[in-house]
Protein: ATP-grasp domain-containing protein
Amino acid sequence: MADLVLGISAYYHDSAAALVADGVPVAAAQETFTFEGRTSVLGVTDKLLGPTPHFVELGHTFPSALADEATAAAELAVAALDAPGFDFGPAHVEAKLTPRGPVLIEVNAHTGGDFIPDLVHHATGVELLRQSVVAHSGGRPDLTPTRAEGAAIRFIAGRSGTVTGVPDPGVLANFPSVVAFRTKAEAGRRTVWPSHSHERLGHVMTRAASPARAAVQADAALAHLAPVYEE
Structure:
């Protein structure tokens, strides 16, 4: 596994050159749960990244649409967890997909952020947080999927300028696949193109019969939540 680990400085703002060594990154995350020493991969999350140099995450789709790449990334995740002896609980393992195969970016001994556990729940029926509580309470977690659908989330990026108007979220009634949304944009607020996730202005989440359909619906709904700026 050593040749699949990308060693970069902990001060990640200085590591852009390493991250783009093979071009604009294609990122994926593996959502796993380990119990009694056995790791189950619930699925791989496709990540939508913003432009250089910050690569802020602008969306996620679960499960992955990249069949072969997702399989290789899942195998890498299990190896990455086995290496230090990780043997209990949820984990979120991130990788960069390259022409040479997946390259390990980070291993997190917790569920993913950015509402990823919600995506897993909407797509598979598995409630990662609930099953974590079960396992930590001495029970046996149930990781059996009860459905095979897709879920996606897209984040409102905003741009540099002053917001003059915010769309009526009632328009989302036209998108029955929307299961959650939030907007922090408001008239008079000055915003910037996000250099980190805390500068994003909200999100919209969808659930559909397939990951591709959920992604299309999330993109369409996001377009109706875009703030209006002064010109």
About this structure: Residues 1-24 have pLDDT under 50 and may be disordered.
